[in-house]
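Q&A log
Question type: sequence-to-structure
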Amino acid sequence: GLSSLVGVGPGLAARLGLNVPPALLTELPEFPGDRLDPARGGGDLVIQLCAADRWPLSVVAEQAGAAARAAGATVRWTQSGFLARTAGGATPRNLFGFKDGTANPNGPEGGQWVWGPPGPHEHGTVLVYRRIRMDTAAFAALPMDRQEQVMGRRAGDGAPLTGTAEHDEPDIYAKNPDGSYVLPATAHVRLSSPRLDGGARMLRRGYSYDDGPGDRGLLFCAFMRDPAQFTRVQNRLAARDALNAFVEHTASAVAYVLPGAPAGGTLGEGLFG
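Response status: OK
Response body:
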């Protein structure tokens, strides 16, 4: 079950002269509330390894590190993460206990918002990585109805507060009889809604991490054709998201994910020249 992903950072792409539009490979701006550790983010090359068991990951990670050092590179940072096991492809839960990754784009939407257009960038995309520390104890101390208002979804089935099933589209305009919004103005689901961003969607892959007491949280990996989309969403979240009281962004990286290599080919071979 081993899989891998390779992404090139802005600096290396420029030095190699890769045919990647500069707008796709710019470092993210600093967002309000960020507490970024430079030693945990950035870099020229991002390699993501995933597997059902830890052992193959350790072996391949050692081999990748050895290859990097042989090429004159050094390992800037590493980060381990995990997903809770789920039955039948159900949406996994994060360390707050809520389903995470429900509203991902479908096939046609992915072609529009995630993957590059036909040509050298087809099947390529941009990865935005954020390491987010979560105050799980403080969040767990909230009454359940308050947790659900912060998220904008029900904890049990993951349905939006305006719906009846997990994959119902959140209705950010629905109101209560008193005129208030069913999805509170500061709810995470409301502020991250594609309806506030011209329908644009990003493919989200969240992994939990546990680096000891006081440092547990989410490894947020988002894939999109245009990273400006992430900046727009994160600016809204940084300004008003009720989750801000329980999370802290501690690391960040941007990389261009190279299209898969054809048989006998090399990753990124179509991006030179």
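Response note: The longest strand covers residues 247-257.
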